[in-house]
Amino acid sequence: MTAVRLHHVGIAVPDLAAAARVYREALGLPPGVPEHVERDAVAVLVVPAGGVLLELLQPLDDRGPVARFLARRGPGVHHVAFAVPDVTAALERARAAGVTPIDEAPRPGAHGWRVAFLHPRDLHGVLVELVEDPGA
Known about the structure:
Structural class: alpha+beta
Helix content: 10-25%
Largest sheet: 8 strands, mixed
Strand content: 35-45%
CATH class: Alpha Beta
Number of strands: 8
Number of helices: 3
CATH architecture: Roll
């Protein structure tokens, strides 16, 4: 497997429109188009920031992981995502290294990406998302 690269940083926000406006006005980032990911009960807005993406995440209700994160920790960095050419192989490599997967198998994520999350307890407190990107 080739080396991974930083793909995006997920940021939990209570108000997607307000957060997007601040990033646009303060940093000059372009506007994006929100997408709902019903499985995770979240609205997602991805904006390019140089060679990396910012993924703004607003809970749609109080049942999803982002809602639980906001209730416990407040707004801020939710996860760091790495692009991999094969998310299934990357998930197996992580398991072999003793990292606990949150997702036992890759699943559909926002924007049609295939993703899998790794538990933060094994990654020094950081929730890591693996994103399949054949160009990685």
